[in-house]
Amino acid sequence: MRLWLQLHRIPLLMVLASLVFYGSFAYQLERSDFTKLLSLYAALFFLFYKLVETNTGNFNFLFWTGIVFRAVFIFSIPNLSQDFYRFLWDGRLLIQGINPYLFTPDSFASLGMTVPQGQELISGMGTLNASNYSNYPPVLQFCYAIAAFVAGNSILGAVIVLKGILIATDIGTLFFGKKLLEKLSLPKHYIFWFFLNPFIIIELTGNLHFEGVMVFFLVGALYFMAVKKWLWSAVFLGLSVTTKLIPLLFLPLLLPYFRSQFPSIRQALKQLSKYYLVVFLTVALLFVPFLSKAFIENFSATLSLYFISFEFNASVYYLIRWIGFETVGWNIIGTVGKILPLVVIVFLLYLSFFKKAKDLSRLLVLMLFGICFYYLLSTTVHPWYLTVPLVLSIFTRYRFLLVWSFMIVLSYSAYGTGGFQENLWLVALEYLVVMGVFIWEVFVKRIGSVSRDAIGR
User: Fold this and answer.
1) Taking Cα atoms as reference points, which of 421, 419, 402 lies closest to residue 192?
2) Tens-place pLDDT, residues 66-108
3) What sign for the dihedral angle of Cα 165, 171, 172, 174?
4) What's the predicted TM-score (pTM) here?
5) pLDDT the model gives residue 5
6) What is the tens place of the pLDDT at every residue in 118-154?
7) Looking at beta carbons, which pairs linking 390-394 to residues 24 or more positions away fall under 8 Å?
8) Vertex 231, ends 228 and 237: CA angle to 5°?
9) Average per-residue pLDDT in the chain?
10) What is residue 264's predicted lDDT score, i.e. its pLDDT?
11) Mean pLDDT to the nearest integer, 159-185
């Protein structure tokens, strides 16, 4: 034991230091204190990088380190996001037999109805959230209902249950991710660029963002695809879609991949049709309990807000917005927000037909580029949105998402003591650094590799 401690002294010291920083992050940090937030995050990121880099062969040590880091947050109330109050509201409505998609919290309260601690939840979630309909798909609603059922009227108890769910799905992502890395002949320790990343630990376990559940089902779908268990893959992809809708973006990319897996176009199309059918049946079955005309109207109206009303931490859109102010004199989000999604669809179709996914490795690269393009054109890019591209990146040779998972912390500078106000210089710095690393990895580094190969020949 003493010898083991001597041999692992430095990693253990890094773990202990990280625990102190995570503890401070979880229990002593105010979101408005950006200097402290950035300092803690930078220290944690440095320690995370060194831990993974110096312990690549010690899988169990890194796994249990990730579990211990998550355990620090178990009894903390999320301090970087108010969204969890809405999660608890929806869950408490559902266990009362009330469809959470049919009422806004404000309208529900105005009818003289409420849920346990309703006013506290409405105050906590904020005016914007309380005045809009829920847009959280069925898998999430079931998670929220589980928390409400198990914890009763305890807000902290419900938070603990939700954190338990997220930790369990992170472990599931590690399980499927490790197997997928082995299928792709990649080092299995790559999964820790996800599992030990402070971005993941803080945004998922710490602040209860359920991208972790979506990613679990997505990585599971990709693993089952790798071993050609098409039915399980389709079911898992359907579950991923009914957690968050974002995996719908990947459906067009599957056509050329399926073509590469079967001897004829006819067989490929037949299998792909079955695959799509199972995906959409899974989605439909989970949405059926909530379906009504009012649900469709409310759900679609809330989703549209993300394209034509909300603005946060955008890149290309902010440039377009500036041009709009300079040329027409007002914010053109209402028009641009409808056009940019169409541009994304065209790009995804371009990837499907002109940058064909000839194998799973290529498909993963195209999925990564596709979702990154979507976020570059989005009007709103909250930090936790990067969960999907980050996990996709570990199955490729690209690491610009690791850089982005660090730089995204700059977006929290918007939440100051004086209220919400984005610092566009910091937003520009975030995207300039990320795009610089992207260009270096995709173009400069590749050209250098080709040149070295040519010299070698």
Assistant:
1) 402
2) 999 999 999 999 999 999 999 999 999 999 999 999 999 998 8
3) positive
4) 0.94
5) 61
6) 889 999 998 888 999 999 999 999 999 999 999 988 9
7) 390/193, 390/194, 390/197, 390/199, 390/200, 391/173, 391/177, 391/194, 391/215, 391/218, 391/219, 392/364, 392/367, 392/368, 393/193, 393/368, 394/177, 394/181, 394/190, 394/191, 394/193, 394/194
8) 95
9) 91
10) 86
11) 97
Per-residue confidence band for 456, with pLDDT thresholds at 50, 70 and 90: very low
- pLDDT per position as a tens digit, 248-272: 999 999 988 998 888 888 898 999 9
pLDDT per residue as tens digits for the range 4-51: 566 678 888 999 999 999 999 999 999 999 999 999 999 999 999 999
* Total residue length of the chain: 457
Residue with tokens 């690791």, as numbered in its chain: 402
| 3-state SS, one letter per residue, for the chain | CHHHHHHCHHHHHHHHHHHHHHHHHHHCCCCCCHHHHHHHHHHHHHHHHHHHHHCCCCHHHHHHHHHHHHHCCCCCCCCCCCHHHHHHHHHHHHHCCCCCCCCCHHHHHHCCCCCCCHHHHHHHHCHHHHCCCCCCCHHHHHHHHHHHHHHCCCHHHHHHHHHHHHHHHHHHHHHHHHHHHHHCCCCHHHHHHHHCCHHHHHHHHHCCCCHHHHHHHHHHHHHHHHCCCHHHHHHHHHHHHCCCCHHHHHHHHHHHHHHHHCCCHHHHHHHHHHHHHHHHHHHHHHHHHHCCHHHHHHHHHHHHHHHHCCCECCCHHHHHHHHHHHHCCCCCHHHHHHHHHHHHHHHHHHHHHHCCCCCHHHHHHHHHHHHHHHHHCCCECCHHHHHHHHHHHCCCCCCHHHHHHHHHHHHHHHEECCEECCCHHHHHHHHHHHHHHHHHHHHHHHHHHHHHHHHHC
